[in-house]
Every structure is written in C-alpha cells, then in structure tokens.
Amino acid sequence: MTNGVPGGEDLSRREARIEKFYDRYGPAREWGRFETPIGQVRLAVITEFLRRWGLPAGRVLDVGSGPGRFALWLARQGARVTLLDISAAMLGAARERFALHELTADGYLHQSLFDLAGNGLAPFDLVLVLGGALNYYPDEMEAALRLLRGLLKPGGRIVGSVMSTVGALAQSLGVGWLPEPEITGEELLAVYRSGMLTDRFSEHRAKMLHAEELRAVLKRSGLQALDLSATNCLLSLPKPQLEALAARPEVYSALLKAEFDACRRNPDAGGHILFAATGT
Ligand SMILES: C[S@@+](CC[C@H](N)C(=O)[O-])C[C@H]1O[C@@H](n2cnc3c(N)ncnc32)[C@H](O)[C@@H]1O
Predict the structure, then answer these.
(1) What residue ranges define each of the domains in the chain, with the CATH number in brackets?
(2) CA 20, CA 275: separation in Å to the nearest integer?
(3) Which residues contact 128 (CB under 8 A, 6 or more apart)?
(4) Tens digits of residue pLDDT in 102-126
(5) Is the model's pTM score more than 0.90?
(6) CA-wise closest residue to 58 among 131, 154, 160, 161
(7) Is the Cβ atom of 87 under 6 angstroms away from ligand 1?
(8) What proportions of the chain, in percent to the nearest 5, are helix, strand and coil?
(9) Is any atom of ligand 1 closer than 6 Å to the C-beta of 161?
(10) Which residue of 27, 55, 171, 278 is most buried, as measured by CB atoms within 10 A?
C-alpha cells in the first residue's frame, strides 16, 4: 500500500487503522457532520468556495470522498466525478446516494490515495481532498500533495481542507472540553505550537495546521496557493444563537455573505482551513 511514499510499513499500518475507523464510524455520522446549525454554516462556506474555485468542474477526482456530499454537488453542476476512499462503507454509501439522485459517477475507487501513483488515470481538471484526510499523514503530507498535483491537467486545481490548529482548539474549548487532569499546560501548548495530536488527544495521530504552515507545505509540494479560507469564523456561535438567526432568513443570508468574507480574511479561524491551489 505504500507505493514508494516515505512511511513504509508504518504508513500501511496507519492506513489500515484509518480504514477500520471510518468503516466503523459510518457514513451516516459522517454525512450528519453538516446537518447541525454550525455544519450548515460550514456547508455554505465550502460550497461557496467550490463555486469560486471548482467550477466549471469538468473531470473531478474526489479523494477521501466519504459519503460523497461534495462529489454529488459537483455532479449536479455537470461534472464527471470519480470518487476514491479507503473506506468501503463510505464509498458504498456514496454509490447509493448517486443512484438515489439518478446520477452516475465515472468510478468508485476503493483504495488509499497513496496508491494513486502511476495507476494510469487520465488527468483531472479538479482534485478534491476535503475534510482532512491529509491531517492523518503528517510525515507524508507533502508526498500526498505532490501525488495529487501529478494528477492535474495543465491549469487544473486542487481544492482541499485541513484541520486548523486554532479553529479546532477553539471549537473544543468552546463546547466545554476540559483536558484530562493528567494533561499539563505545557502539553497543551505543545499541541498549539506543533498541531500534533498524539494518542493522549486523539484516536489517530494527526497534525493540525496553522495557515502559514499550510502555505509552506503547498509550496514545498510544487503548488501555488490561490486562496485560503476558514470553514467558519463570524458565525462560530452556540447552537441556540445560530438557530435563532437562521429563523430570520434575511438577516441570516446577510450574515452568511459576511461569513464568506470573514472566513477568507481569517483562514485559521474555523474547524478546517480550505485551500485552492494549482501546480507551479
Ligand atoms: C472526514 S472524512 C471527509 C469526507 C468528505 N471529503 C467530506 O469533506 O465530507 C475523511 C475521509 O477520508 C478518507 N481517508 C482517510 N485516509 C485516506 C486515504 N489514505 N486514502 C483515501 N481516503 C482516505 C476516510 O475514509 C474518510 O472517508
């Protein structure tokens, strides 16, 4: 499963754990991530970002597609979409959703993104890697991005997202998360500085990023960042407040417009940092 990407056996083991985790976690919960009031804000921001950087879409590869929410949206805009995910459960649910909407995808690839090297796929206008699949591969992030860059047509784009160190920490604290008593302030500060989630903080070793780190890894991978955006900023509010605002559609839609702008001005602010990039 390693295809010459640094990481070797260790990478294979991590991929296998992640595959198991997502099969168990299941597509319904993953789909539900965007069904909450803050999820709806994020969905609006991501869709707006895709409208700006993903259309007209042409041939699209959705890497780590999960249950296919964004692939489906792009297919509805006329794109020809290939979905790829390491989890069979996620991919199966995506296939069902496409069928439900009487849409067809060009393919459903059950494999790791690291197995994409040299697999003979024709080049794509757009490669998606949304929702943070990249975060699970701290040591291979650059290799993964290089691999995805290699799948682009000239002038093609990658649109993706990674977990934001600032936004994810703020969100955890905002919902009342208190570190276990044995976790020290120094350890928390180390998480803030490095973005590294060790097994004391997460089931999977993962790296969250600051926007400047994301810009740097894109550059090292031969990619030029076209735009960065938070997934949520101004409207990172408690549920009752968001529900009250959503009940006033005129105010809510004005605030959403402000949100699109605020997210681009403050890419670190949300749970994820969105990026659009093209090969240099
Ligand atoms: C948080 S979900 C995001 C789903 C979708 N892209 C979205 O934004 O709603 C992350 C997805 O990445 C997939 N994934 C993780 N590592 C992967 C890998 N090495 N290759 C392919 N897919 C992977 C997981 O199975 C999971 O479905």
Answers:
(1) 9-279 (3.40.50.150)
(2) 28
(3) 54, 60, 61, 62, 63, 65, 70, 71, 74, 158, 159, 160
(4) 999 999 999 999 999 877 888 999 9
(5) yes
(6) 154
(7) yes
(8) 50, 20, 30
(9) no
(10) 27
